[in-house]
Amino acid sequence: MRSIKIFDTTLRDGEQSPGASMNVEEKIQVARQLVKLGVDIIEVGFPIASPGDVEAVKRIATEIKGATIAALARTMDKDIDRAGEALMPAKSKRIHTFIATSDIHLRHKLRMGRDEVIANAVSAVKRARQYTDDVEFSAEDATRSDREYLCKIIEHVIKAGATTVNIPDTVGYAMPHEYGELVEYLINRVPNIDKAAVSVHCHNDLGLAVANSLAAILKGAGQVECTINGIGERAGNASMEEIVMALKTRSAFYSADTKIVTQEIYKTSRLVSRITGMVVQQNKAIVGENAFAHEAGIHQDGLLKERSTYEIMRPEDVGIPKSKLVLGKHSGRHAFKARLQELGCELTGEGLNRIFEKFKRLADQKKYIFDEDIETLVSEEVSKIPEVYSLIDLSVSSGINIRPTATLKLKVNNDIVEEVGHGHGPVDAVYKTIATITQTKSSLLKFEVRGITGGTDALGEVAVSIEEGGRTARGHGADTDIIIAAAKAYINALNKLAARRV
Ligand code: KIV
Ligand code: ZN
Description:
Elements: E1 2-3, E2 5-8, H1 24-37, E3 41-45, H2 51-63, E4 68-74, H3 77-87, E5 93-100, H4 103-110, H5 114-129, E6 135-140, H6 147-160, E7 164-169, H7 176-189, E8 197-202, H8 209-218, E9 223-226, H9 240-249, H10 251-254, E10 256-257, H11 265-276, H12 297-305, E11 325-327, H13 333-342, H14 349-365, E12 369-370, H15 371-382, E13 389-399, E14 402-412, E15 415-422, H16 426-438, E16 443-451, E17 460-468, E18 471-479, H17 482-501
Parallel strand pairs: 1-10, 2-3, 2-9, 3-4, 4-5, 5-6, 6-7, 7-8, 8-9
Antiparallel strand pairs: 11-12, 13-14, 14-15, 16-17, 17-18
Helix pairs in contact: 1-2, 1-11, 2-3, 5-6, 7-8, 8-9, 14-15, 16-17
The structure holds 3-methyl-2-oxobutanoic acid (KIV) and zinc ion.
């Protein structure tokens, strides 16, 4: 049985999903959970891209133990140095350097010749080796590269000290059989390939990222790069939970498995979904709401007689909790804390006190508190960013024959500011009034409303994306009153923009 290494890139490629950017605290939460999940390598950022990425890589390198921490770098000296310095505190660290190898990229993007690209790659790998013995090289757009040239560059980077070579299907172009065959070809043709691990990294543009990754594993790849819930650039990356469960369920077929603690999968999926605001589709394999729901009578009958008739995996294998109904207004702190832990939230001290208070307030407003309600409270706590603006009071009047009017009281730094404003509807009135008070001129790119649980007393969640001066931010707000939730979401996004300005 081969053990396939799991290289998680949720915090790097996953974060490249439009609107999925995470702040440092959020990245740390996810990294902690990824360690519990048992991933081998966590790629946490691209330090040259932003000071936020440098900070995230440094903090995770300092605080997270139990997995190799990787950072991405182009082949330029300044990229390698920035990644190497940010990774310094990590006990186990990897620099992941990449350059494109396809003629399309060489001609139109890099404007470099083939030999020049090899020279760059070799020098980057050598420079990276001065920071760590663990260096990965990626041949970007490998699947559209000339095979002989791919063999050549891989041979050179291994000679220069690369310990892992990655064959990305950057644009999600390959077909499973073809991709597996490419990996097999490289393994057979590159003379020093036994000195490095072969890795695969697939994008999902044609919906084939998982199928391609599995085809490559079958042909000898020893590492697979993937993300939780398959989030990532454009249509996303290969979904970790799907690859892991395919290998586990069909381990005899693949003669391969991973070190993933599969019972942690569901928790991790929920955490990433609530932090990024990227909703998991209902019928998503492994972690979607319907993944283990059997509707047809014939199926239900079969299941009752013998589970294996219609179930190839058990929900408990991926950590789906048996009961979703949890607590009510009489539940104590102890039960609340235990439920938080089951949901993968390790809050203690002040954080726990604050969220328990919020839970009690919510329990006064609605009868039953579900896991999703608790997760929403947690995400508000975990994503806490310095608050330049906070909502003190809000009232709205609107109706068929009334001009929608909002009266708002906000704390702006240390001042209390009050304003009355109008709009085309209650949300418009609130947003216009908030913009007046905060003296901001952002435009609203997206506004989404979701009932978190059933019933008219459900928590409503609003997610917004706003843009100001070329910067975008995503904000969330939840409340049993949907207009208050909308106000909270907008203020949350404005605080994120303000935090980036300092
Ligand atoms: O898709 C890609 O090619 C990448 C590389 C940086 C590995 O993400
Ligand atoms: Zn990628």
